[in-house]
Design goal:
Multidrug-efflux Transporter Regulator, Chain: A, Domain 2
Length: 151
């Protein structure tokens, strides 16, 4: 089972992430494999690692969020979550998530009496829900403009 940890970065970690983001951005937005050198504080030797282009892109994205003081969790899309963890990921209550599952809005499977939800299905739902919400807001804004409500 995947464990989600939502610890906010410390002020020191935030500053370090800001520095790292600046350095990674200096490399450009390449999606090509990139050689990165690391040296642990207690070690004298550097370790050279070739990162796939996509990994460097994701690492920069993660560090950008950390630099802003946000908690970051990496979860494989194939991971299955409990209803509690799935609800936390979506930012909704567990009972609301269970209703979405039981209504067939989000697919799930049962393991004994417990429900399990794929992260990929949560992402699909969130994208769809965000799109519907955006469309509704755009429609309301257009109607407000037509009515001269000053929005």
């Amino acid at each position: 089972m995947t464990h989600l940890s939502l610890n906010l970065p410390s002020e020191q970690e935030t500053r370090e992430a800001q520095t790292a983001v600046r350095r990674f951005r200096d490399l450009g937005s390449t999606r090509e494999p990139t050689v990165v050198r690391f040296r642990l504080p207690q070690e004298q030797e550097e370790v050279e690692v070739t990162l796939p282009g996509e990994a460097l892109h994701l690492l920069t994205h993660i560090l950008t969020h950390m630099a802003q003081g946000h908690a970051v969790t990496v979860v494989p899309v194939q991971a299955e979550l409990t209803t509690q963890k799935a609800a936390e990921l979506l930012g909704v209550s567990r009972p609301y998530l269970v209703k979405l599952l039981e209504d067939g809005v989000i697919p799930f499977r049962r393991v004994g009496t417990h429900r399990r939800v794929l992260v990929a299905d949560l992402i699909t739902y969130k994208k769809r829900d965000d799109g519907e919400r955006r469309a509704a807001a755009d429609k309301l804004a257009a109607e407000a403009q037509e009515l001269g409500l000053g929005y």
